[in-house]
């Protein structure tokens, strides 16, 4: 079997930094140490050899708001690899009323074109006995996480009683619930009010989704998960209020995870005000970009460990698609891209500024997702036996981000003009060199589905609340004849 050796680099993992060569055979790492030899040598002098990035939150070719997101599994995963991300976790999204198994089949069909490995979360967009019955089968098929939308009223949103029932089902079958936490009822009222007042431009999108709607819903989701006895993962944590709810719960022993996006960490709400319509609409996503106070909170969360992973929620729409919302901001398709830029932007604004160590960078871009989503150490590790999903990171390689040179299929980039320092020299997907000093050598269909098994029964919520309020039968005497 032909072998490859990544030579002369410094291995950086979530725990350690050390000089070593890395040998690859049959798509996996077979040796790590000094002076290794192989059939092919990749020069890593001056570079860091890290686990390839894992983006735990993407939407390829997703039917949404009257259209489909414009990056499919081919262009989306090509963009991922160009930026050092070697795996994505996408969402199967049944339309309300649709079988989960049928939705799974649809996403299987779309993902045959993937250039890198991928996995799925399953969305619970409606609740019924059928959904309840299908959930264990979905988990048997390698999907151990179920996403719930507390927003998008009248479309994807589930009610609290449905969420509680679904969370309890997750607890039974060893699955992890995920939540899009915004109060959908309040958002719907604010949208109506803003439109009635004549605020129909893209900046009104941000006013309709203030941090409070996120803070309230995040806290509600966490408390409901705790009562259901299951950990919970909050997607796209964007505000201090949401972060505060997560922090407080973690201090109380509740197992909850928070996922800031690279967009919220590096772009703020000045992108909406006094900007031309296209500029602002291209940045319409939910939750919207926030002010500096919220950004500081998210960075602090990554530094202290109260927030665990950095994702993109990559959901790319062209300018033409964004213009569906001219005259009514509620019709602007929600979503931004970021897959190609997540790692270079986080390195530039995190590691180069001293906010994150290199090891923390690896943890939040890769290893923590692999652990939380139950695929470690197959993914997210530089260890013998792990998949050779690796990035050889050149800390001195620089570029200015431009839509004209990006892999994504859309016509703009929300990070346009940002200068990044720190980029892949090589990206490897299961041992195959797919990015070679900027040259794209991806292979459509190379990506494989990664099964994620159910969690063990010990992965439960650990709130003290349970001990204090465990139901007990109380012996009573002197029961009054009348209940009054
Ligand atoms: N938010 C977005 O901006 N796009 C996709 C779905 C979501 O919740
Ligand atoms: Zn969401
Ligand atoms: Zn999303
Ligand atoms: Zn292949």
TrEMBL record:
It is an enzyme of class 3 (hydrolase). Its EC number is 3.5.2.2. Carbamylation allows a single lysine to coordinate two divalent metal cations. The modification N6-carboxylysine is found at residue 147. It holds the Pfam family Amidohydro_1. GO terms for molecular function: dihydropyrimidinase activity; metal ion binding. Residues 48-419 form the Amidohydrolase-related domain. Its cofactor is Zn(2+). It catalyses: 5,6-dihydrouracil + H2O = 3-(carbamoylamino)propanoate + H(+). GO terms for cellular component: cytosol. InterPro entries: Amidohydro-rel, Hydantoinase/dihydroPyrase, Metal-dep_hydrolase_composite, Metal_Hydrolase, Metallo-dep_Hydrolases_sf. Keywords: Hydrolase, Metal-binding, Zinc. GO terms for biological process: nucleobase-containing small molecule metabolic process; pyrimidine-containing compound metabolic process. Belongs to the metallo-dependent hydrolases superfamily. Hydantoinase/dihydropyrimidinase family. Catalyzes the hydrolysis of dihydropyrimidines and of the structurally related DL-5-mono-substituted hydantoins, to produce N-carbamoyl-D-amino acids. Homotetramer. This is D-hydantoinase/dihydropyrimidinase.
